[in-house]
Amino acid sequence: MTNTNNAPYKTEFKQLSEMKHYVGKELGISNWHSISQEQINAFAKVTGDNQWIHTDPEMAATHSPYKTTVVHGFFILSLIPKFCNETFAFLDVNMGINYGLDKVRFMRATKVASPVRAKVSLMEFTPIPAGAKYKLEIVFELEDEKKPACIAEFIGLAYLDKP
Question: What is the pTM of this model?
Fold first, then answer.
C-alpha cells in the first residue's frame, strides 16, 4: 500500500507468508501519541532512572538545552509493541515474540508532550519452522521536526497455529 497523504494506516496480512512480498516496503504509520510528564515519571519509577533531565521540570527549565524535561530513550523503545499494533497485523498468527533490537540510533531528544509517531517498514523476512522471523525499521517521528527522535531495527518472531 502506498500512502501518499502521510495519514495513519495499517497493513493486514491474512496469511503470514504474504509478508515476504513487503520486504523493503512501508507497512504502516501509527497515530500521533503525546508522552506526558506523568508517563515519564512512572517509567522513571519503574526503571529506577530518575535523572533530573527526565523528572524535574524546574531543573530542566534552568539547566537543560531543551528548557524542558525529555523522554527516556528506552521509554520511546517501549512503545514499539503499541506502534507495531497500529501499523500491521497478522490474522493467522497464534503467537508473536519480541526477539530484540538489532540497531538503535537516537537522533534527537523527545521533549515532554511532543507528539511522536512511528513509520514501520519491513527490512527482512525469513521463514522458520511454524512461522517467520522478521526485521522492521521503525522511524519514530516528531511532529514539526525533520530529524526523527529514534530509528530502531526491531526483530520479531511470529508463530502459526499449524506449520
Answer: 0.90
